[in-house]
C-alpha cells in the first residue's frame, strides 16, 4: 500500500505541539531505533494518520480527526526528543 | 464554523432510507490503509478461536469444508461512506462456535499485520457476523482483507477486521486498535457511535 | 521562518489562477499575515461546505522567502475531492483557508554549503523543488544545484520559466518532444545514475513524487552508493 512520509504530519501535529513535531526524534518502543518523525511512514486511513516505524513497521502513533475533535496516540513511542 | 468556501459542497449528500445518519452512498469501494497490505497465502492461512478452555484451529481446506452462507448486506464506514447491497460468501460465526463453550462475553479479533478490534460475543452470533472470503462472486482481494476478513455489517466497518486470523474471547470489553485511539468502543452506525 | 509552529488558520485571497498543464492549475494566493516560508515547505488548505463539512489537504508551496504571496500548483486527481475543486471551480477573488507554512524537514535554505544539491521530482512532485530552485536563484547561492524531472509529456511541465534557468535533466515517460534524443519511457536506474551528482560528491538529495516513484528512486540511490541519511523524501497522496 502507498504511504506518505512523516513530513505529512506537520499540519495536524503543529496544533498539538509547540515545536515542529516532524523534526523531533522518537524512539520506537518495538525495535528501539531512533529517528526524526519526518522519516516515519505515514498511512492515511480515512480521516486518520497511522504512523509506522521506518525500520520495523510497528505502529508509533495515530492521529485521528472526527466530529471537530482530534485524538493523538503515541503508543509505540518510548520517548520523544524535543528540539530546543 | 463561520468560514464557508464559495462553491464547495463536498461529496453529494443523496439520502436513501438504508443510509444511517451522516452517511453517503458510494459505488466504488474506498481502500483505507492503516499499514502495508499483508499477503497471506491460503496454504499458510489459519484461523483460530481461543477461549479460556483452549483453542480451535482451522486450515483453509478445513474452513472451506464448513457450511458456507451467502450474505447480502449494507456496509457503513465511519468515514461517512456506505455501500449498499454488497454480496459476500463466508462461514457464519455461529457455525465456528458450535461446540465451543466460554463464559466470556467479549471477543478480540486479531489480524495478520497486527490489527485488533473488539466486539461483544452476542453481536457476533445469531446470524450477525461471518468470516468472509468472497465478495461479488470473486475471491476477496488482499487490499480488501483477503484471503478472509471478519464482517459484522451492523457495526461500523472498522469492526470488520481485514486479514483476520483469529478470535480470542475475553471477560471484559477491552478496546482494540482504533478503539484505543479514538473510535467508539461499540460502533453502531444507527446511533452514530463513531468516536469516544 | 522556522520558529514555533503557528496554529492559526489564515484566509488567503486568490489573486490569480491559470492553467499550468492540461491537468493542473497555478494558484497565487495573497495571505494576510503570512510570515514567509522556507523553500520546500507545504501548507494545508481547508474547504468548508455550507453544512459545516470540511476537507483538508496538503499542498507544496512553489515559492519561497519573505512576503505574503504564495504560489501553488495543484494537479487534479480524477477521484479527488479537493484537487478538482481547486483546479476547476476556484476563481480569482475567492477566499481559501490556509494553515502554514508547515514542515521543517523537506526544506532547503541558502547556505553555500560545499556539498551539491540534487533535486529529483516526479510529476507534480517538482513543486517544492521549484521553490528550492527559485530560492537558489534569487539569493545567488553558490551551491551546485541539479534537477532530474520525470514527467509524462512536454505539456506537463510545471513552471517552465523557472526551469529554463536551471540545470535540468528531463525524463519523459509517455511522449518526448520532437527530436528528443531518447524515446519516451520510465526512469531507469541507469538513466538515474547518469543524471544525478555521483555518490562520491556527497550530494544532499531532495526527492518528491508519488509513493511508488519515491520508493523506487530512493532504493536505486542507495544501491548507487548514496548515503540514506543524505536523502530527504516527500511522498504525496493528497486528493
UniProtKB/TrEMBL annotation, chain B:
Name of the featured protein: Sulfite oxidase-like oxidoreductase
Region Disordered, residue ranges:
1-40
Residues of the Oxidoreductase molybdopterin-binding domain: 35-178
Q: What species was this sequence derived from?
A: Orlajensenia flava
Q: Which Pfam families match?
A: Oxidored_molyb
